[in-house]
């Protein structure tokens, strides 16, 4: 079932969902505290929304906070590494290549290792998105050979999901 924020994003209108996500984030922060996993989950949703809007600096701040909570509470969870991958994308959008690359690679490798324990619908989107971010990174970094290696892995993953 899609919620209102998901509907906006499906229509390519992520900006309309941002105020709702910010409000929900504040509510979870008040209700569960600044170190809670529900708050971290809401931060992740807000961070992903900001990345989609190319609001990379805002996304970086939100995702760093989320990642700190998740690393403390669930250091080995796939959601921690998905957040790390999103943070890498936010850094990439800002041209912070040296910082983005290791985050993106480590996040993908960790998510791939945990693929068997991730719900199938989330595994598909998580791994595919992580690979897409790596292709985008190496394209932006003007490293076509590395981009092609990751592009091939992306194609294999998409084939596997069919």
Give descriptors for this structure.
Serine Threonine Protein Phosphatase 5, Tetratricopeptide repeat, mainly alpha, 81% helix, 162 residues
Provide an overview of this structure.
- The chain is mainly alpha-helical.
- It has a domain at 4-116: Serine Threonine Protein Phosphatase 5, Tetratricopeptide repeat, CATH 1.25.40.10.
- Helix content is 81%, strand content 0%.
- It has eight helices and no strands.
- The chain has helices at 4-10, 14-32, 37-52, 56-73, 78-93, 97-113, 120-140, 144-161.
- α1 (4-10) runs antiparallel to α2, α3 packs antiparallel against α4 (56-73) and α4 (56-73) runs antiparallel to α5 (78-93).
Total count of helical runs of at least 4 residues? 8
Broad shape: globular
Radius of gyration: 15 Å
Strand fraction band? under 5%
Q: Tell me the distance between the termini.
A: 22 Å
CATH superfamily of the domain at 4-116: Tetratricopeptide repeat domain
CATH architecture of the domain at 4-116: Alpha Horseshoe
CATH C-level category of the domain at 4-116: Mainly Alpha
Low-confidence stretches: none
- What is the N-to-C order of secondary-structure elements (H for helix, E for strand)? HHHHHHHH
Helicity level: over 70%
Provide a brief overview of the structure.
By secondary structure, the protein is mainly α.
Secondary structure elements and pairings:
Blueprint: H1 4-10, H2 14-32, H3 37-52, H4 56-73, H5 78-93, H6 97-113, H7 120-140, H8 144-161
Helix pairs in contact: 1-2, 2-3, 3-4, 3-5, 4-5, 5-6, 5-7, 6-7, 7-8
């Amino acid at each position: 079932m899609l919620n209102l924020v998901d509907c906006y994003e499906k229509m390519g209108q992520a900006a309309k969902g941002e105020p709702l996500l910010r409000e929900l984030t504040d509510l979870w922060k008040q209700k569960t505290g600044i170190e809670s996993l529900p708050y971290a989950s809401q931060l992740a949703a807000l961070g992903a929304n900001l990345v989609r809007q190319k609001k990379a600096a805002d996304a970086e701040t939100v995702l760093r906070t989320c990642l700190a909570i998740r690393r403390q509470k669930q250091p080995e969870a796939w959601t921690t590494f998905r957040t790390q991958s999103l943070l890498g994308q936010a850094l990439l959008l800002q041209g912070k290549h040296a910082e983005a690359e290791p985050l993106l690679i480590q996040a993908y490798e960790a998510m791939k290792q945990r693929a068997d324990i991730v719900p199938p619908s989330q595994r598909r989107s998580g791994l595919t998105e992580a690979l897409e971010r790596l292709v985008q990174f190496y394209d932006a970094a003007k490293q076509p050979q590395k981009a092609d290696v990751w592009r091939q892995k992306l194609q294999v993953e998409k084939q596997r999901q069919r």
